[in-house]
Specification:
9 strands; binds nicotinamide-adenine-dinucleotide; SIR2/SIRT2 'Small Domain'; three-stranded antiparallel sheet; elongated; Rossmann fold; 247 residues; alpha/beta
Length: 247
């Protein structure tokens, strides 16, 4: 049975923890001005997933996919990390074992100072050659012609996980191990819909970890949570950092 906490009980026990995992989703970047994928104002209200973010779309219409993706890069560049991202970087300093697992591709956790970051869905600022597999940092916001090409002549693909693609196995393994050994998992701004990321809180819970949820509304993870903070991620994380004396 899930044990429930009040906020200060949680802070007292959390402060003693050795091993912490965090799972973040698009909601943590919403207050930076980056739209989430689902929910009110979400990206999918305006564009269909099939049109831009699937492997078959990339194979049949890479120009359209790259046009959309370059717009997404511009959004990431025009916005910046918020206090929820910087609060997580502060928390990392406090624990011996701290793994930040993110589904986001915006690079904001690293920009805010987080170091041990597992990127389940890749990073928008990297590209990979669809022919030779070469992977490299790519900060371009535009190209002379689309799709951009690798030196080998192959087509470049944004190095993010499209629908229909497998997750990077090494990153997934690191995430599962962190979920299995953590005493606490903070689950922040994720709708609990996209697999397999959605199973990580179950994995932590079944291994004895306590789940703390931060979201604007209840999700499929809420029944696992010992504490749910239904408030914006910036506010919840500022409260946690302040209560731990880290601000
Ligand atoms: P999602 O869009 O499915 O869900 C967002 C969740 O965040 C919702 O549950 C919503 O209630 C919550 N939320 C919204 N604003 C919040 C706030 N201020 N504080 C706390 N919670 C808030 O996102 P997902 O679960 O991450 O899954 C969708 C996929 O979207 C992921 O694979 C991710 O790669 C991708 N994505 C990434 C970005 C990014 O990198 N910033 C942006 C959009 C989508």
């Amino acid at each position: 049975m899930t044990m429930s906490y009040d906020f200060m009980d949680f802070i007292r026990e959390f402060s003693q923890a050795k091993s912490v995992a965090v799972l973040t989703g698009a909601g943590i970047s919403a207050e930076s001005g980056v739209p989430t994928f689902r929910g009110k104002g979400g990206i999918w209200e305006e564009i269909s997933i099939e049109e831009v973010a699937t492997i078959s779309a990339f194979e049949t219409n890479p120009v359209r996919v790259w046009e959309w993706f370059l717009d997404l890069r511009k959004t990431f560049k025009n916005c910046s990390p918020n206090s929820a991202h910087t609060s997580l970087a502060k928390l990392e300093e406090r624990f011996d074992d701290f793994t930040l697992i993110t589904q986001n591709i915006d690079n904001y956790h690293q920009e805010a100072g987080s170091r041990n970051v597992v990127e389940l869905h890749g990073n928008a600022w990297w590209s990979r050659c669809w022919s030779c597999g070469a992977r490299f940092e790519d900060k371009a916001l535009g190209f002379d012609s689309l799709p951009p090409r690798c030196d080998c002549g192959g087509r470049l693909k944004p190095d993010v996980v499209f629908f229909g693609e497998a997750l990077p196995i090494g990153e997934l393994e690191r995430a599962i191990q962190a979920a299995q050994r953590c005493e606490f998992m903070l689950v922040i701004g994720t709708s609990a819909i996209v697999a397999p990321a959605t199973s990580l809180p179950y994995c932590a819970y079944q291994s004895g970890g306590k789940i703390i949820e931060v979201n604007l509304e209840p999700t499929g993870h809420s029944s696992l949570a010992s504490l749910s903070l239904f408030e914006p991620a910036t506010k919840a994380l500022e409260r946690i950092v302040e209560a731990m004396g880290l601000d």
